[in-house]
Amino acid sequence: MHPEKINPMLLKSIGVVKRQGKQAILEILPQYAQALDGLAGFSHVWVLYWFHEHDNPEERATLKVHPRRDPANPLTGVFATRAPVRPNLIGLTPCRILKVSGNTVEVADLDAHDGSPILDLKPYIPKGDSLPDAATPDWVKKLRPE
Amino acid sequence: MHPEKINPMLLKSIGVVKRQGKQAILEILPQYAQALDGLAGFSHVWVLYWFHEHDNPEERATLKVHPRRDPANPLTGVFATRAPVRPNLIGLTPCRILKVSGNTVEVADLDAHDGSPILDLKPYIPKGDSLPDAATPDWVKKLRPE
C-alpha cells in the first residue's frame, strides 16, 4: 500500500485541556468517560493533544527549527525535536495523575496550553516506556527546564 | 472553545512501516526527508503510527477491552490500556534507532504491522520521558513480553 493512497485519517477531539495554574484538568467528553475506567490505577499517563495554535499550512510544512526558537540550538529536523510545529501537530507529554473523577482527570506536568484538544490518553508503563540510558545529542543535554 | 466546535484535525501520512523480521524500516516520504536531520544523534525515537487495520466505526467506538484480548485481564477503559482499538487509532512505541539514511530510519522494537502509516517521529529524551518509578496496577505487572 502506498502511503499517499491511504484514506484521510481524521482525528476526533476526545476532550479539552483546562489550565489551572501549574496543574491542568483533562475534561473528557462525557461519551468517553467509561474509557477512563482503570486509569486511576496508574501514577502517570501519556497525554496526546493537538497543537491547535499552530494549525495552519505554513507551520505544518515546517521541516526544520531551532529548538525552543533559540538560535543557540542547531537548526534541526522537526522529527528530531519536540517542537509544536510539524506535519501532524501531535503533542506528547507524560503527566502525573492527581485525580480521576467522572469524566475528568487532574494532572501535573502538562505543557499543553488551555483549550488544546485532547486526542488520546495512554497509561505510562515503565517496562517499555522508561529508557533512562537513552542517548541524546549535546544540544539536548544543555537545555534548561522550561 | 468547546471541543465539538474545533475544526476537524486531519492527519497526513508522513511515511509507512516496512517490516523486516524483528526490525522495521520507516520509509519516510521524500518531501519530509529534511525533517530527519539530527535524529541520528539520538539512540531512541518515539514512533507514532496509525492502527490502520482497526480503522472502522465499531473499533473507534470501543470504550472497554480486556487488555491483549485476554479475559484474565480485567475489563478496562481503553484510555487505561495500550490497545489498538480506541477513538483515535494512534500507536506509540519507543524504538531503538539502528540507522538513519536518506529518507529511511531503521529501527528495532517496533510493534507496528507492515503497512502502518507513520504519523510522527519524536526523539526520546530521558529527562522527561523516562519515569522508572511510575506505578501500574497488578494486571500490568503480570503481563509477559509480547
Describe this structure in words.
Two copies of one chain form a homodimer. Chain A has three helices and nine strands; from the N terminus they run E-E-E-E-H-E-E-E-E-E-H-H. Chain A is mainly beta and 146 residues long. A six-stranded antiparallel β-barrel of chain A has the order 2-3-8-7-4-9. In chain A, strands 5-6 form a two-stranded antiparallel ribbon. At the A-B interface, strand 1, strand 4, strand 6, strand 7 and strand 9 of A face strand 1, strand 4, strand 6, strand 7 and strand 9 of B.
Descriptors for this entry?
homodimer; 146 residues; mainly beta; 6-stranded antiparallel β-barrel; two-stranded antiparallel sheet; 3 helices; 9 strands; globular; disordered N terminus
Count of DSSP helices of chain A? 3
Helix content of chain A: under 10%
Summarize model confidence as the mean pLDDT of chain A: 94
Query: Unreliable segments of chain A (pLDDT under 50, ≥5 consecutive)?
Result: 1-5
Biggest sheet details of chain A: 6 strands, antiparallel, barrel
The separation of the N and C termini of chain A measures 41 Å
Chain pair forming the biggest interface: A-B, 76 and 76 residues
**Portion in strands of chain A:** 25-35%
**Shape descriptor of chain A:** globular
The main sheet of chain A orders its strands as 2-3-8-7-4-9
SS class of chain A? mainly beta
Please give the radius of gyration of chain A in angstroms.
17 Å
Q: Oligomerization state of this entry?
A: homodimer
Order of helices and strands of chain A: EEEEHEEEEEHH
The count of DSSP E runs of length 2 or more, i.e. the number of strands of chain A, is 9
